[in-house]
Amino acid sequence: MAQATPEEIELHNQITSGDDLAFAKLCDKYLEPTIKKVRNFNWQIHLSDETMIPEVVIDSFYGYFYNPQKFKPQKQTLEKFLVIDAEGDLKNAWAKKKRHQ
C-alpha cells in the first residue's frame, strides 16, 4: 500500500498542530475530488439522494479534522484515507436512512 506523500504529511501535521488554515487547505485540495470519487463508486445512492454524498463527505472531513490520529500516513495516502472514510460513513448513513423509511 502506498504511503502518504510529503505534501499530505505536511498537511496532516498542520491539522494535528491546530493550524487555523489547515481545514481550508484540506477542503481546497481534497473536497471536490473526494465527492466525485465517492459519487462514482456509489452512483445508485447519488441517484436516490443527490445531497447525501456531499453532506457525508463534509462530515467525514470534519471527523478527520477533529480526530486526525485516525489517519496513518505510513499505511496509505491521505486521499485514499479520505475516500475510504467517507464511503464508510456513507454506507452507515444510507443504512440508517433505509431503516427509517
Description:
- The N and C termini lie far apart (39 Å).
- Helix 1 (6-17) packs across helix 2 and helix 4 (52-66) crosses helix 5 (78-100).
- The model has no long low-confidence stretch (mean pLDDT 94).
- The protein is elongated, with a radius of gyration of 14 Å.
- The chain is built from five helices and no strands.
- It has helices at residues 6-17, 22-41, 43-48, 52-66, 78-100.
- With 101 residues, the chain is an all-alpha fold.
> What is the typical, i.e. mean, pLDDT?
94
Any idea what the radius of gyration is? 14 Å
Largest sheet: none
CA(first)-CA(last) distance: 39 Å
**Unreliable stretches covering 5 or more consecutive residues:** none
Q: Helices and strands, in N-to-C order?
A: HHHHH
Proportion of beta-strand residues: under 5%
Percent range for helical residues? over 70%
The secondary structure category is mainly alpha
Q: How many DSSP-defined strands? A: 0
The DSSP helix count reads 5
What coarse outline follows from CA principal-axis ratios? Answer: elongated
